[in-house]
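cache lookup: miss for this entity combination. No prior model stored, computing from scratch. Input as submitted by user K.M.:
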Amino acid sequence: MRIGHGFDAHRLVEGRALMLGGVRIPFDRGSLGHSDGDVLAHAIADALLGASALGDLGSRFPDSDPRWKDADSMELLGQCADAVRSAGFTVVNVDATIVVERPKLAPFIQTIRENVASRLGIEPTCVGVKAKTSEGMGYTGDGTGIAAHALALLSSVA
Ligand code: MG
């Protein structure tokens, strides 16, 4: 068994879509980023890469590379899952927490879980996604940004 951790944060700005686990969340701001800024997809991808010691998302898909401009982060997550499988691992489960004051994410959590599960080739029952506020404190509390934490557990195929 191998465990990995991922973290990501993005600035919330007007004129951008808020993408979380491939779901476009209706909101007056979205995450600023070179890709589509999907903070959840990025955190989970880094957890997978961390567990398999395959580096990190930023070195795989650098934000200096125009190929990844406005990239679909769920597609990048799928590529990371493929890399993890090629290295001889299967994904057992992932668990993630999104930290943002607004919008409320409860109505979207199930769809997000299904999207992530589909990209990882696992069952939605093996994907935990929670949303938390930081009670008004800090950049996730004052609306400046959004953050996500993730853990991934991998099992050796051999
Ligand atoms: Mg990111």
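stored under new cache key. The longest strand covers residues 2-13.
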